[in-house]
Specification:
Radius of gyration: 18 Å
Number of strands: 0
Distance between the termini: 33 Å
Shape: elongated
Length: 83
């Protein structure tokens, strides 16, 4: 468990550093108006990623007794959120 958490933490750290770097480069290359549009789009994309990764996959993996009804409901929710 601790090994998994350290890998996940390292992944999040690398992602945050990369995102910071990309933001810094874009801030230097784009005009303030263009950078504002990119920043607003980035916020929307990040918000949608959080919603899309709402834990449906984790619920399927961690559940010990999978019934066809549960799988069908989980897939329906995943499709609805993904759409």
């Amino acid at each position: 468990m601790a090994g998994h958490l350290s890998w996940q933490g390292m992944s999040m750290l690398v992602q945050a550093v990369a995102q910071f770097g990309v933001t810094a480069v874009l801030a230097r290359l784009l005009s303030p108006e263009d950078f504002g549009v990119i920043a607003a789009a980035n916020i929307a994309i990040t918000f949608m990623q959080v919603i899309a990764e709402g834990g449906v996959g984790s619920a399927i993996v961690q559940r010990s007794d999978l019934t066809p009804a549960f799988i069908s409901a989980a897939m329906t929710v995943a499709l609805m959120v993904g759409t």
